[in-house]
Automatic annotation (TrEMBL):
It is found in: Membrane. Its main location: membrane. InterPro entries: Palmitoyltrfase_DHHC, PFA4/ZDH16/20/ERF2-like. Its EC number is 2.3.1.225. It is an enzyme of class 2 (transferase). The chain crosses the membrane at residues 21-45, 51-76, 138-155, 167-187, 194-221. It is a multi-pass membrane protein. This is Palmitoyltransferase. GO terms for molecular function: protein-cysteine S-palmitoyltransferase activity. Keywords: Acyltransferase, Membrane, Transferase, Transmembrane, Transmembrane helix. Belongs to the DHHC palmitoyltransferase family. Pfam families: DHHC. Residues 92-230 form the Palmitoyltransferase DHHC domain.
Amino acid sequence: MMLRVKELRNIFPKAPSEIAAFIFVICIIPTIYWFELCVVIPSFYPVWSVWYNVHFICGTFLMCNITANFVAIVCVDTSVKGILLQSTLQPKWHFCSVCESVSPPRSWHCETCNTCIIRRDHHCMFAGCCIGHYNYRFFLAFVTHLFIATVYATYFNSYFMWEIIDFQAPMALLKVVFPLAMVAFGIDVSESQLCLILFLVNIMGMLFMAALLAFHMNLIWHGTTTYEKNHRIRDYDLGWKQNFKDVIGENWILACFIPFAQLKLPCDGIHWNTKCMWQLERPKNR
């Protein structure tokens, strides 16, 4: 399946809040990567020793997957633009007054993207685009790899910070609770305080990714999108195995390790099997 790539002018976010969030993501991820492999890990193992190399390879693998999947989220076009759609309404299709066209099932208009999105789930402010049928797999892989990376980093960071922060010092609690304020007001601009900020950012990222991953795993398990969950629509729940294939594709094993493995989705995003249709077709497939 050939993925459509957005035009260059449509790749980057337009809203100020989304621009700030986008810049934060593309800056903090390589910063944490550098911090872990150039500061934290060398405090445990000599540089280029066997165990350092193991962690270097693991960290770089996660970094490559995180970066590549994020690029795919932003660049892959999952809108109805350029797709030849029918002009008459059929069951579960609806007319979009903004796009002035008929929109397929599970597709909804996004005011920020100013177009209808195929199997729209939500608009991601950090990527500055919608998560839909063709980039959902990349979004899920991005969140999963980022969660693994933050858990991985938190394990080593906890031991590292315990060694460099004196938690019995009078200002220790303030340093932990208000780390950014301590730096901003010049109270503590030491190297250890900057390390503490990165440590806390990593923990917040881990908790956020954990919540995000749990939420979307639940959506996929039940074959719904955020809109369908909120409106209790369960027409497309084909069983958890098929639900995951509809998002990740047939070659899900490769997708876990190779970000740009071919996207073999069983559905074209326009025509969907419903639960009733699936139950009728399964005996025939057997």
